[in-house]
Amino acid sequence: MLNEMMRSWRFAAKCLGAFSLVFATSVSAQSDASIPHITGWIETDPATGYLAGDICIAATPSALGGSILLHRGLNVRGVRNAVTGAPLSFDGYYDARNIGDATPYEVAQGAADQGVCVSYVGAFPVVHVDAGERTTDDWKGNIAFDGKTVRAAEQTRFYPTLRDAAGVEHQQVTYDVEVRCTGCKTIFWNGSAPVAGDRARFTSDRPRLLMLYAGDLPFSTIDGVHFVGAEVSADAAAFVGTSFAAIARIHEDYLGVAMEDHPSLLSFAALGGRASRKLGVNTWGFATWPTIASDGRLPFDKLVPRGPDGSLAAGSQRYFAHEMAHHYFGVRYAPRGPLRWFMLESTAEYLAARAIRTLRGEAAYQGLLAGYVRNSPTAVIPLDQVTDVGQIDGDYRYALGPLLLAALERRIGEEPLRRALTSFITNPPSQEVDYSYLRARLIAAGATEASLAVFEKACLKPTLDDACKAEAGIGS
User: What is the Cα–Cα distance from 6 to 37, expressed in whole angstroms?
Assistant: First the structure.
């Protein structure tokens, strides 16, 4: 099942009652003033597709001086000063130029420096998946109502996010938010424990990417791992904990940086897409760290299968190793610039391949490299010529990208590459990253000009050829 999901990544990339107070804690809770803090409430009704909110954002004037992004299906009721409550004029609703799944709105220059509040409302189609209804597609940026639940990940911008004048989007936030969910039995807010009931308040001083999943759904918390959306046996939960710990140790040992969170698992129903996307079949997933979400609405005993040797099945190991790597490349370091997708997804897949090599040996690793070769695009813009984030598409991100990193490791040495990747996590760049910047980091980490020149001659070409395959060690 998860093997099929792995094969689908490159395609998916082209197109996670009572009033309760829940605290999200961490050993590295942050109070960085540059991190936006949001307060307010969100209301939703899974049965009707209704979603509304009133969210206030406190941030630095530089962050507040750009635009506000909100999902294109949500209508702004009004914007006001967070301190005085005075209404603020805004623009962006006429002839909107969307950024991904969101519409940017601009408030008059300087008017929002004290903080801004956005009131909004929207209604979305309800696709009754259990009755056999389907849509043409589903994706992470979709605000999805399946007749029983609502799902909205950070990519949707179901909460207003700031995009400063330099184009940097501040999606990770600290928060104090109340969620009211009509008819809901469970509310899950990424980074916090799931809550039984139709109302809950979530707070955290740790920056998070936000995701809401709520409705008529089961949940369990076992040994610190949240299982949301499906049932799990005690045996499967223990197996998950052991398997995740093994993957975490491999990532930690390589990067020298601790993984601070227990992953949460979420099982949901996709609204549509390819014919294989249906209840009981897992073909697609995404991560909003620390939540790893998988479609099919499968029980976790089936979603996390054992292989013939009794360990986590190989495809599942690779999938979870990739998603857990996003704790580093995605959360600890949020890439931007022309190489965003390379630094976000290719690095995660490279780390997953390294984990498979440790867990399953050289033959399994060589099998992954061969798969990267098969799935690499026939023509690309070489990495050192990429000038736009859209030039690195799904096949580039998930196949060619990790193959390039494997070749880079063999040519410049494991240690220089390891030190360079770790530096992005421990000392994230404030600027956009292109190849020249990545190259400078590699040199600073110990790579030589001569070794980089050999790599670049072999691999930075419009097509993948035998010279680059040899650099990656294909068949060696």
Answer: 35
Sign of the alpha-carbon dihedral angle for 168, 174, 178, 182: positive
Beta strands in 246-363 (DSSP E): 264-268, 285-288, 291-295
- Upper half-sphere CA count for residue 453 (Cβ side, 13 Å): 3
Residues linked to residue 189 through DSSP beta bridges, in sequence order? 212
Report residue 248 as tokens: 């975490």
The answer for residues whose C-beta is within 8 angstroms of residue 459's C-beta and 6 or more apart is 383, 404, 407, 408, 467, 468, 471
Pairing between β-strand 225-228 and β-strand 144-145 as defined by DSSP bridges: unpaired
Whether the Cβ atoms of residue 214 and residue 192 lie closer than 8 Å to each other:
no
Do the Cβ atoms of 290 and 263 come closer than 8 Å? Answer: yes
Positions of E strands within 251-334: 264-268, 285-288, 291-295
Q: What tokens appear for 336 in the block?
A: 């931007």
Mean pLDDT of the chain, nearest integer = 90
Structure tokens at 393: 């598409």
DSSP notation for 86-112: -B--EE-STT---BTTEEEEEEPTTTT
User: Who's near 467: CB < 8 A, 6+ residues apart?
Assistant: 457, 458, 459
Q: What's the start-to-end Cα distance of the chain, in Å?
A: 30
HSE (side-chain half, CA atoms, 13 Å) at 409: 19
What is the C-alpha to C-alpha distance for residues 415 and 407, in angstroms, rounded to an integer? 14
Describe the strand order of the beta sheet including 75-81 as a list of residue ranges.
21-24, 199-208, 173-181, 37-45, 50-58, 116-123, 75-81
Q: Which residue has the tokens 């956005």?
A: 118
* H or E element in which residue 420 lies: helix 414-426
CA distance 371 to 350: 13
Q: Residue 7: pLDDT above 60?
A: no
Q: What is the pLDDT of residue 245?
A: 94
- Burial tier of 243 (Cβ tally within 10 Å: 0-12, 13-18, 19+): buried
Give the pLDDT confidence of 80-100 residue by residue, as tens digits. Answer: 999 999 999 999 988 888 988
Gyration radius from the chain CA atoms: 22
Whether the Cβ atoms of residue 449 and residue 416 lie closer than 8 Å to each other: no
Give 264-284 pLDDT, tens digit per residue.
999 999 999 877 788 988 888
Taking the mean position of all CA atoms in its chain, how far away is CA 18? Answer: 30
Return the SS3 of 345: helix
Amino acid letter at 198?
D
Residue 34: is its pLDDT beyond 70? Answer: yes
Give the pLDDT of residue 9.
Answer: 39
Task: In whole angstroms, give the CA distance from residue 439 to residue 453.
Answer: 11
Separation of CA 266 from chain center: 13
Residues 6+ apart with CB under 8 A from 203: 21, 22, 23, 24, 175, 176, 177
Query: What is the rounded distance in angstroms from the CA atom of residue 371 to the CA atom of residue 57?
Result: 45
CA atoms within 13 A on the CB side of 430: 3
